[in-house]
Amino acid sequence: MAPNLEDRNSVFEFVVRQGNGVKGLVDSGLSTVPEAYVQPPEERIDKENAIKYDLPPIDLSKLDGHGPDHDEVANQIVRAVETLGFFQVVNHGVPLHLLESLKVSAHYFFSLPPQRKAVYLADVSPSPLVKYGTSYIPEKEKALGWKDYILMQYTNDDEALQHWPQEIKELLLEYLRSSTGMVKKLLQVTLGNLGVKPDDSMIDVLIGKKMLSMIFYPICPNPDLTLGVGRHSDIGTFTVLLQDEVGGLYVKIEQDTGYGKKGDWILIPPTPNALVINVGDMLQSI
Ligand SMILES: O=C(O)CCC(=O)C(=O)O
């Protein structure tokens, strides 16, 4: 049954506990965002004054040789890692047909009837490796997040094939393998700049736990009042993001750089065939 949109508990029960998600809320019909999703003003993004990131994506195919192109690209990566901590890459080695299929699979998964997704809600999921939900910590958040997600942890291929959602597991595994290869190259370049020549086992330790998530941001009637994923940093080395053509990824600058001043927001627009790379806390602390 559709929730009473005025009542936070009713919205919470429908969206979070029953697993209908924001997708279910939107499908049940609404013309304004329920109060439970309205972010306090200090949490909202100053989109009007955001700076549009306009550096060309870094061409990773140039890392394959040993000539001046290799060094130039390595410098671009190091500069991006040390300053904004976000950059885009093309010719990254992850097949483009795979990226397109991933977007189709994400739409497929989130368009499943709520009861098919709700089997992966944290309390009932058949595996601790797979979790479907909406806000990350809905009991604690001041405002709920305008998104639904499915998170899959990777331990090994066998467990992934056993536990990840049947219809998408092969594709997700292929993407994980392929993007991990790219992340290894990025780590070699980044650590190489610090004078470290990491071998495979050191890289594996640095990468640590691998996780894959698909996040769906349903169309929002008042996008200026809400956030999909609120302010955060990622804990690992590199996060690889595949955006669709809608966009909406903003980065806040922590200290003055060539990109802008402390406190400025930067919009990272979707770029065809590119992946977005985000430096995580672990790498930042090295
Ligand atoms: O969907 C996005 O582009 C951002 C997601 C994100 O930042 C995250 O999950 O850590």
TrEMBL record:
Keyword Iron: yes
Pfam families linked: 2OG-FeII_Oxy, DIOX_N
Sorted UniProt keywords: Iron, Metal-binding, Oxidoreductase
Assigned protein family: Belongs to the iron/ascorbate-dependent oxidoreductase family.
A GO molecular-function descriptor: oxidoreductase activity
SUPFAM superfamilies assigned to the protein according to its UniProt record, in alphabetical order: Clavaminate synthase-like
Name listed for the protein in its UniProt record: Fe2OG dioxygenase domain-containing protein
Domain named Non-haem dioxygenase N-terminal: residues: 55-166
Keyword Metal-binding: yes
Top-level taxon of origin: Eukaryota
Residues of the Isopenicillin N synthase-like Fe(2+) 2OG dioxygenase domain: 211-284
